[in-house]
Design brief:
Layout: E1 17-21, E2 24-28, E3 48-52, H1 58-69, E4 75-77, H2 89-96, H3 110-121, E5 128-132, E6 137-141, H4 152-155, E7 160-165, H5 168-181, H6 187-206, E8 215-218, H7 223-239, H8 245-251, H9 258-262, E9 264-266, H10 271-281, H11 287-307, E10 313-317, E11 323-327, E12 334-340, H12 345-353, E13 359-366, E14 373-379, H13 387-390, E15 394-398, E16 401-402, H14 406-417, E17 425-433, H15 434-443, E18 448-455, E19 457-465, E20 482-485, E21 492-493, E22 500-501, E23 507-508, E24 517-518, E25 524-532, H16 538-543
Parallel strand pairs: 3-7, 7-8, 9-18, 12-13, 12-15, 15-17, 16-17, 17-18
Antiparallel strand pairs: 1-2, 2-4, 5-6, 10-11, 13-14, 19-25, 20-25, 21-24, 22-23
Helix pairs in contact: 1-7, 5-6, 10-11, 11-12
Length: 545
């Protein structure tokens, strides 16, 4: 069981959801908060090992803990049952005859179990097998178990070790019910297997492992023990809470160093490019014209990014029968991942350059109370599902602009956790603030940024929340953290060009809401980071009429 972020408040509307696959259960809130430091280093997940006899109630205890946490960060209940060793046809026949010892430590692939748990603890993607008790086989998809505390290498991975103690008669009764109902076995076979293998394993291996437990929980009527465990885990998760968007801005107030400048590839600042940027920055540009020039700009940036990717030499014969020394134009190792929603405008530009490029997406937006980025949805191309395959891929991360760099750090950390080398990640963006340059380079110096502009200013401004409308940064795309603040009594006047005057007198053009006025007590606000001179909210301007 792991989690690296603070649970949401019990008043939150973000209720957890669960997905089940056998005994393996993933409990997830509606967003994964940062699981890494401002320097991009993963914070290890909190891991609990739960051991006990067969049918002692280990899975029930794990699920009761998840239920007690209420609104929780992402939690995985990982069952030892998924890690039985590969069975030959002879083994399968013995198992069908209740003549195979599933309860001996040698029946578990501890090496694979330990590796999967180690990857999960470090935040890395891994493949967890699923075991079928009907067919006695494993299938690859995607900690609790009787031997959870027996192996020393496993105990070293746990932050908390729990042993579930249960009466032997009750465990046998539960086992008979489970195996007859869920696994279709007959009572005689169950009792024969219990007497020959299960009880011996419990006496020799399982029960002696209880000496390693930090806490022993009853397998029946254990509400008080669960409550104590939940209280302890709440404290652990609170201590691991990571809130650093403002810290990024404060840390990044200095001018970029020469090495940071080199990590940014500014595409040639031609008159054509400056003309396109002028049209896109203009608050009065109509949507159709904005979309056309945004697509043009994304194509220019993609072409510039691909120009420096290494290509293998290739000799060909031309249509005129002449030998030509060229390079291999194969783009099969290139994929794109868009940070939604503002990364969407890059999709058309990328497909103009690489027609059949696989595209994935990450939905990263701001948590309403803290303004910190939340990973809400992840759909990566198939080539990134395998860590081995991901290691050879070139990934283009797509986002329209980078403000604080918070969403960029989250997106890069996701790719690293899936096995993509840092040097194989290129971030494409229309414009980036110098603060984001510093954030990304400090954490991931090998990541390249390709952009059309680097803007100097990043201000935190107050934005009104209009019912039924998205205003500027209020939609809170991940790289522009916006958080709700209390009712505000000041009046905001919107300018004729769609900008508005903040309480400090600064004008912010965003192309929306011209001529509107809020009176005292009629609105709520969000605080949001805004790049200046910037382009406003690119996602809104691209997609909304």
């Amino acid at each position: 069981m792991g989690g690296g972020a603070k649970p949401h408040s019990r008043r939150s509307t973000m209720s957890p959801r669960a997905s089940f696959r056998g005994k393996n259960v993933v409990m997830a809130s509606r967003g994964r908060a940062p699981w890494y430091t401002p320097d991009g280093q993963s914070v290890p997940a909190y891991v609990i090992g739960i051991a006990g006899g067969s049918s002692s109630g280990k899975t029930s205890v794990a699920r009761a803990i998840c239920k007690g946490l209420n609104n929780i960060p992402t939690v995985l209940i990982l069952s030892q049952d998924a890690f039985y060793k590969y069975h030959t046809q002879e083994d399968i026949q013995q198992a069908m005859n209740n003549d195979f010892d599933f309860d001996h430590p040698d029946s578990i692939d501890m090496e694979l179990f330990s590796q999967c748990l180690h990857d999960l603890k470090q935040g890395r993607a891994t493949q967890i097998p699923v075991y079928s008790f009907q067919q006695h086989r494993k299938s690859l998809d995607l900690m609790e178990g009787i031997m959870a505390l027996q192996a020393a290498e496993m105990r070293e991975l746990y932050d908390l070790k729990v042993y579930v103690n249960c009466d032997s008669d009750l465990m046998l009764a539960r086992r008979i019910r489970r195996d007859t109902v869920e696994r279709g076995r007959d009572v005689n076979g169950i009792l024969d297997q219990y007497l020959r293998f299960v009880k011996s394993s419990y006496d020799n291996f399982v029960q002696p492992s209880s000496k390693y437990a930090d806490i022993i929980v009853p397998g029946h009527h254990n509400d008080t023990a669960i409550e104590l465990l939940v209280t302890h885990l709440q404290k652990q998760l609170d201590a691991r809470s990571l809130r650093f968007r403002r810290e990024l801005v404060e840390l990044d107030s200095m001018a970029p160093t020469p090495s940071e400048v080199l990590s940014v590839q500014l595409i040639p600042q031609t008159s054509q490019l400056l003309g396109i940027m002028t049209i896109l920055r203009n608050a009065n540009t109509k949507r159709g014209e904005f979309v056309f020039y945004a697509d043009r700009l994304s194509t220019l940036i993609v072409e510039a990014a691909l120009a420096d990717l290494l290509r293998q030499p290739k000799d060909i014969r031309t249509a005129n029968g002449v030998s030509f020394h060229g390079v291999d134009g194969d783009d099969s190792n290139i994929v794109g991942v868009s940070i939604l929603r503002s990364g969407g405008p890059f999709a058309n530009g990328l497909r103009r350059v690489i027609r059949d490029v696989p595209l994935g997406s990450m939905l990263i937006q701001s948590e309403p109370k803290s303004g910190e980025p939340l990973l809400l949805n992840l759909k990566l191309p198939l080539s990134l599902h395998s860590r081995e395959k991901a290691g050879s891929m070139q990934v283009l991360l797509l986002d329209s602009q980078m403000g604080t760099g918070a969403a960029a750090l989250m997106a890069i950390r996701v790719l690293l956790d899936h096995g993509v080398p840092e040097s194989n990640i290129t971030f494409l963006t229309f414009l980036v603030s110098r603060y984001a340059v510093h954030s990304v380079h400090r954490a991931f110096p090998s990541v390249r940024i390709v952009t059309a502009a680097v803007d100097d200013e990043l201000d935190e401004v107050r934005l009104p929340i209009m019912p039924g409308h998205t205003l500027g940064e209020v939609s809170a795309d991940g790289d522009f953290g916006a958080r709700v603040v209390a009712m505000h009594d000041d009046v905001i006047d919107f300018d004729s060009d769609g900008g508005f005057d903040t309480p400090t007198g600064d004008a912010l053009g965003n192309g929306l809401g011209a001529g509107l006025r809020f009176s005292r007590g009629e609105r709520k606000e969000k605080l949001a980071w805004v790049v200046r001179p910037g382009m406003g909210h690119i996602g809104d301007r691209y997609y909304l009429a």
